[in-house]
Automatic annotation (TrEMBL):
This is DUF3074 domain-containing protein. SUPFAM superfamilies: Bet v1-like (SSF55961). Residues 63-225 form the DUF3074 domain. It holds the Pfam family DUF3074. InterPro entries: DUF3074, START-like_dom_sf. It comes from the Eukaryota.
């Protein structure tokens, strides 16, 4: 009997990538388990809640989660999915400052692709390289729900593909994100991750700062998204009113009356007061 696939920081070989269904099932299992995790601090003016659980027998590291809810003023479901469900790595590079380069290693299908991400940090921390397979899925049951699962991948069996990775310390992470429409018309953004930076950085230092670090992604993403939003009709500024010019006409505005003398030119300001040139 085949063991059930579980999300962990142990990288999968190219020749041993689990099926898409197994990856999504493992991601859903993590999401379902969050209800039993320990609640931690709230961040970003208490709009981002965090949860965590200790390393289990099938884990290489502890798990950390953040949960936030958003109105359409922040982002609609379509806006979230457009940036996180499509070309996620490329978009993350735009709002996560530590990511300096991303490369598409292999497009497996419309919903699966392998990416390598190159992170830099202030000295003395060396650059890190994370290579992951990202699997996306969207459904309506009954409200729209989108899932993105990332698992670490080992490219060492393919020399040509491994050349696409930058030079740096190999780190590993796995994560699952869920975007879900709520009855309140809000969108819930939930993300859980387990990771190791590799190298000589003690794991306890990473764990201690993880909740705050993953929570920062929420305001960073929303700020970046708003800078790339297409303005709506209501947001588009109206053209400034043009001054009207009158010759030898009676001009009445808010009870003010003026007869413009012959040959003189008057202009009416936007406030409605008659002005003379």
């Amino acid at each position: 009997m085949t063991n059930m696939f579980c999300l962990s920081i142990t990288p999968a070989k190219l020749s041993d990538i689990p099926s898409e269904e197994s990856i999504l099932a493992a991601g859903r299992a993590v999401l379902e388990s969050i209800r039993g995790w320990k609640e931690g601090k709230s961040y970003n003016h208490h709009t981002v809640k965090t949860f965590s659980r200790s390393k289990g027998p099938n884990d290489g590291a502890a798990w950390h989660c953040r949960v936030s809810e958003h109105t359409s003023d922040d982002a609609t479901f379509d806006e979230f999915w457009d940036k996180l469900g499509n070309n996620k790595a490329e978009n993350e590079k735009e709002f996560i400052s530590e990511i300096k380069k991303v490369s598409l290693v292999k497009q497996i299908s419309r919903t699966q692709s392998i990416w390598t991400l190159y992170y830099t940090f202030p000295p003395p921390v060396s650059p890190r390289v994370f290579t992951v397979l990202q699997t996306t899925h969207i459904e309506e049951n009954p409200r729209r729900t989108g899932i993105i699962v990332s698992i670490p991948i080992d490219l060492s069996d393919d020399l040509e593909l491994s050349k696409l990775e930058e030079h740096g310390v190999k780190g590993h992470y796995t994560s699952v994100e869920r975007l879900m429409e709520l009855e309140s018309a809000k969108v819930e953004w939930r993300m859980a991750t387990s990771s190791t930076p590799g190298g000589s950085i003690p794991q306890f230092i990473t764990e201690r700062t993880m909740a705050g670090k993953i929570s920062e992604d929420v305001p960073h993403f929303l700020k970046w998204l708003k800078s790339h939003r297409r303005p709506t009709m209501l947001e588009t500024p109206l053209p400034a009113p043009q001054a009207e010019t009158y010759h030898n006409k009676d001009v009445t505005r808010d009870g003010f009356h003026e007869i413009v003398a012959s040959g003189a030119v008057g202009s009416v300001s936007p406030s409605g007061f008659a002005m003379r040139s």
